[in-house]
């Protein structure tokens, strides 16, 4: 009797956890959609401000509101952009080792990680992906998944990112959309819009074709 109750309780808890996870991901998706709108609107606004087009993401909303009265705030954006660029270029180990001897730094893997199964061949597009082809699958390629990427998952046939993990937000969303995805692949930096590539979301392989045939 107790075993039967435990099974029913476990099943009920599993259902609640599944619903909670779905609600969490839905909420995150809504937030990312709002951020996506901000990222499309703000570049249009900054054209009227004393700020470089590439620097506005490095200011807070409050600083952007004060920018027309305090143009000197633009200098903060340039400083923060330089600091971020330096941090991104900093070499990182593929894992942390807290053993007594500190371990040895391991080099990053040559291939990426398959985080959403499936194999697809398609044309490379990059955010904001305004040129998604209609006659063949599109492969969304970006350095990392941000707010621009989530709304595009329903429109593309595959995803390749330069950074990420199996538990990253883009990996979770790709599995929900059943879109093949590879994260942490060095090819993400070299692929250009219009390239023809084949990706395998199971093995993590990304193969670029030499030419794009009609």
Automatic annotation (TrEMBL):
Gene3D superfamilies per the UniProt record, alphabetical: Phosphohistidine domain
Molecular functions per Gene Ontology: transferase activity, transferring phosphorus-containing groups
Span of domain PEP-utilising enzyme mobile: 136-204
InterPro entries documented for this protein: PEP-util_enz_mobile_dom, PEP_Utilizing_Enz, Phosphohistidine_dom_sf
Pfam families referenced in this protein's UniProt entry, alphabetically: PEP-utilizers
Superkingdom per UniProt: Bacteria
Protein name: PEP-utilising enzyme mobile domain-containing protein
Organism phylogeny: Bacteria, Bacillati, Actinomycetota, Actinomycetes, Streptosporangiales
């Amino acid at each position: 009797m107790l075993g039967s109750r435990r099974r029913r309780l476990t099943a009920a808890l599993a259902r609640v956890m599944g619903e909670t996870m779905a609600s969490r991901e839905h909420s995150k998706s809504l937030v990312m959609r709002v951020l996506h709108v901000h990222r499309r609107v703000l570049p249009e606004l900054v054209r009227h401000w004393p700020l470089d087009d590439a620097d506005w993401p490095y200011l807070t909303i409050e600083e952007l509101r004060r920018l027309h009265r305090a143009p000197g705030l633009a200098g903060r954006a340039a400083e923060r952009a330089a600091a971020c660029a330096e941090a991104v270029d900093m070499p990182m180990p593929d894992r942390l080792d807290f053993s007594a001897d500190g371990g040895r730094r391991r080099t990053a893997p040559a291939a990426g990680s398959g985080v959403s199964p499936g194999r697809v061949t398609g044309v490379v597009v990059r955010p904001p992906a305004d040129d998604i082809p209609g006659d063949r699958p599109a492969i969304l390629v970006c350095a990392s998944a941000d707010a621009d990427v989530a709304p595009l998952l329903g429109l593309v046939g595959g995803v390749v990112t330069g950074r990420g993990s199996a538990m990253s937000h883009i990996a979770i969303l790709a599995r929900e959309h059943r879109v093949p995805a590879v994260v942490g692949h060095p090819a993400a930096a070299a692929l250009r819009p219009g390239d023809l590539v084949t990706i395998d979301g199971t093995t993590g392989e990304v193969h670029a074709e030499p030419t794009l045939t009609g």
